[in-house]
Design goal:
The complex is a heterodimer of chains A (255) and B (224). Chain A is of the alpha/beta class and 255 residues long. Chain A contains 11 helices and 10 strands. Chain A folds into 2 domains: 2-101 and 212-254, D-Maltodextrin-Binding Protein, domain 2; 103-208, D-Maltodextrin-Binding Protein, domain 2. Chain A has helices spanning 2-14, 33-47, 58-66, 80-87, 140-151, 155-158, 168-176, 187-190, 193-196, 225-236, 238-246; strands at residues 23-29, 50-56, 73-76, 97-102, 104-109, 131-134, 162-165, 182-186, 199-203, 212-218. Chain B is mainly alpha-helical and 224 residues long. Chain B has one domain: MetI-like fold. Chain B has 11 helices and no strands. Chain B has helices at residues 3-33, 39-51, 54-65, 70-79, 87-112, 115-123, 128-139, 141-156, 160-166, 176-185, 189-220. The longest helix of chain B has 32 residues, at 189-220. Classes of the chains: A alpha/beta (255), B mainly alpha (224). The interface between A and B is medium-sized, with 33 and 34 residues.
Chain lengths: 255, 224
């Protein structure tokens, strides 16, 4: 018993934090899952700084930041959340930046009998028993998916077959694994190698839903606002824009 | 395998079971020996985390320690950063979440200590505190270790509470169970499988330890 306690306390002592180089923490909407991993690794090599990434749904991050979550930067898939934080005085003034426009696609596995190339009507096919989307209550991509289905007047026919991912990358994982038959997910995820090799997608026309304007802010409570600003500049740089473009994010000015 | 997440988890789980040893002993002692008529009220509160959905517990903790509560404001003024989404906040949540996993085995072990021995010790002039440390504790070692090991293991597998209170920050609040969830969403099935296998092995080892230890107790006191 005594020895066990000794080991435990030793363990605790070693675990006290070791000083590190400047490290920024980023809350990123889950549509950035693959794009940002690439972007961040290039930024780390260029700057020598370390980046800790947390992916999740934009709405959850919004709630967490209001509750004092220690993120330096917040990349939301819906600019209205960062705007609300700005109104509440929770961001570094002037840091709000519209970094990209998101697109949604219909996605299914290669071996699926569903032909997504015929467009949204594919959802009506009987083999589309489960349709994965992100939870519209707190995930912007889920809301866009619902609006698009309403736009094409298929929502009422298919709403009982929807399964909700906690965020858009969970919805993507549902279809990628075959657990769901078809999904409405972010183009940025469909273009990621892990998904692109396994399935086909159909781009849902932009007029079917309000544009997914994505906004980033530096959180006011950040103690590393300078590094955060430097990262934001990297996203805006030609190198950053090129990576984002490869993952299907239209640059904000080129709409 | 992500060693940062494993490290955070081990740190969290060991600190939780250590804290529960300190907090759990007096609670278990009181629960065992108190003759108060309404004792069952407290017993039920201690056991609540067993049945309460982790999201409910997480939600209450988040509200209780958030910037809009007096506790949260007091902590922020004192330490300089808010309690939610910090390791300390997660530790607090884990302690509450695993409380019954420590207190119940402790109390069961105390109950099994022969009442006559305790009374003999008191008659011989040993104070209640001394009796506790010199007689009850040594006779309850297996139960104490069981409680600590179980609360350690329970904290390892914690998910809902961590997600609500922790905020999934690498190196701070991202535990292995969250890491697995993240890996699956990133379609990184190999990493998820490795971490899952590790958790499975650790869980099995923990249970082996608990069962093996409680066997020894029976063989030492076979007449019970």
């Amino acid at each position: 018993m005594k020895r066990l306690l000794l080991w435990l306390s030793l363990f605790v002592m070693i675990s006290t934090d070791i000083a590190r180089a400047e490290e920024i923490t980023i809350a990123a909407a889950s549509d950035l899952n693959f794009a940002f991993k690439e972007l961040v690794s290039e930024y780390e090599t260029a700057s020598g700084n370390q980046v800790k990434l947390t992916f999740g749904s934009s709405g959850n991050f919004f709630a967490q930041i209001q509750n004092g979550a220690p993120f330096d930067l917040y990349f939301s898939a819906d600019i209205s959340y960062p705007k609300k934080l700005e109104e509440a005085g929770l961001i570094v003034p002037g840091s709000l930046y519209r970094y990209a426009i998101g697109r949604i696609v219909l996605w299914t596995r290669h071996e699926s009998p569903i032909d997504v190339t015929q467009g949204i009507a594919a959802l009506r096919q009987s083999s589309a028993k489960t349709i994965a989307i992100a939870n519209p209550r707190h995930a912007p991509y889920g809301r866009a998916a619902i609006t698009a289905m309403e736009h094409f007047k298929v929502y009422d026919d298919v709403k009982d077959r929807l399964v909700l991912g906690e965020n858009v990358s969970q919805a993507a994982q549902f279809v990628e694994s075959g657990a769901a038959d078809v999904g409405i997910i972010a183009l940025s995820l469909a273009l990621a190698p892990a998904m692109n090799t396994k399935g086909t997608y159909w781009e849902i026309p932009t007029e079917a839903h309000p544009p997914l304007e994505q906004g980033a802010v530096i959180v006011k409570a950040s103690k590393r606002a300078n590094s955060a600003k430097q990262f934001l500049e990297f996203v805006k740089s030609r190198q950053g824009v090129a990576i984002m473009k490869r993952y299907g994010f239209a640059a904000p000015e080129s709409r | 395998m992500n060693w940062t997440a494993i490290w955070v988890t081990c740190k969290l789980a060991s600190l939780t079971s250590l804290a529960l040893l300190i907090i759990g002993l007096p609670i278990a002692y009181w629960l065992t020996y108190s003759k108060w008529r309404w004792k069952f009220l407290i017993e039920s509160i201690v056991a609540l985390p067993l049945v309460l959905p982790p999201t409910v517990l997480g939600f209450y903790i988040l509200i209780a320690i958030g910037p809009h509560s007096p506790i949260g404001r007091f902590y922020t003024d004192l330490v300089g950063h808010p309690l939610p989404f910090s390791f300390q906040g997660l530790l607090l949540a884990s302690i509450l979440y695993s409380l019954p996993f420590a207190v119940q085995p402790f109390a069961t072990a105390f109950e099994q200590v022969d009442r006559k021995l305790i009374e003999a010790s008191w008659t011989l002039g040993l104070s209640k505190l001394k009796t506790f440390f010199k007689l009850i504790m040594p006779l309850s070692t297996a139960g104490l270790i069981t409680g600590m090991v179980l609360s350690f293991a329970h904290t390892l597998g914690e998910f809902g509470v961590v997600l609500m209170v922790g905020g999934n920050i690498e190196g701070v609040t991202r535990t292995v169970s969250i890491e697995i969830y993240d890996d699956v969403q990133a379609l990184n099935y190999v990493a998820a499988a490795k971490t899952s296998a590790l958790l499975l092995l650790v869980s099995y080892a923990v249970l082996l330890l608990v069962y093996a230890m409680n066997r020894r107790v029976w063989s030492v006191w076979p007449q019970k």
